[in-house]
Amino acid sequence: MDQGVIRSLKCHYRKQLILRISECYDENKDCDISLLDAVVLLEKSSRLIFEKLKKETPELLGKVCVISGDASLLNLGMCEDHTHLLLEEVSIVFHCAAVVNFKKPLEIILKNNVLSLSSVIELCRKMRKFEVLVYTSTAFSNANHLNFPLKEEVYRLPFHARQFIDALK
User: Fold this and answer.
1) Where is the Thioester reductase (TE) domain (predicted)?
2) Spatial contact of 97 and 116, defined as CB atoms under 8 Å apart
3) Tens of pLDDT along 118-133?
4) Lowest-confidence segment of 5-19, 106-120, 123-137 by average pLDDT
5) pTM as predicted
6) For residues 142 and 101, is the Cβ–Cβ distance under 8 A?
7) Which pLDDT tens digit goes with each residue over 71-109?
8) 48 Rama class: left (phi>0) / alpha (psi -120 to 50) / beta
9) Residues sharing a CB contact under 8 Å with residue 112, sequence separation 6 or more, in sequence order
């Protein structure tokens, strides 16, 4: 998949996420975003950028499969059939689940936003046809980089990630 398409998808997804959080804030409500909510936001985002692709190559639509689960559970809360499908047939994984209500207990945020990514990466390593993982983090990623514009690249922690996770536990 073209990197420009992935970048556009992530950008539109983040915009949808920020709009959703803004609406919750304006209405003075907690902003819980479930896996289903994340999939809906991803679908809205993809609709904005994939119209041309859908017109030119409609056969690609049959290759898309949404798999429900729970990022905080063992095996990402997926049934055995979905796990088998991922392991044997899937080449591109979109991981968009996150807790964006930062009033939640740190343990819940850690499970959903940090440890779930480790589970997804571990799953991808086992997939026979795996090619790419598209991970969309929360809009608050890299909030410590305030003095320069963020680029589409990985910003490393000044220490090993395991040290961070152990400290949060």
Assistant:
1) 49-155
2) yes
3) 889 999 999 999 998 8
4) 5-19
5) 0.58
6) no
7) 888 888 999 999 999 999 999 888 877 777 778 888 888
8) alpha
9) 71, 72, 97, 98, 99
Token couple for 41: 């936001």
Please give the backbone phi and psi of residue 92, each rounded to the nearest 5 degrees, phi first: -120, 130
3-state secondary structure of 129: coil
The C-alpha atoms of residue 88 and residue 91 are separated, in whole angstroms, by 9
- Domain spans of the chain, in order of start: 11-167
**Measured CA distances, 83 to 59, 74, 76, 88 (Å):** 24, 12, 9, 9
Dihedral sign from CA coordinates of 26, 31, 33, 37: negative
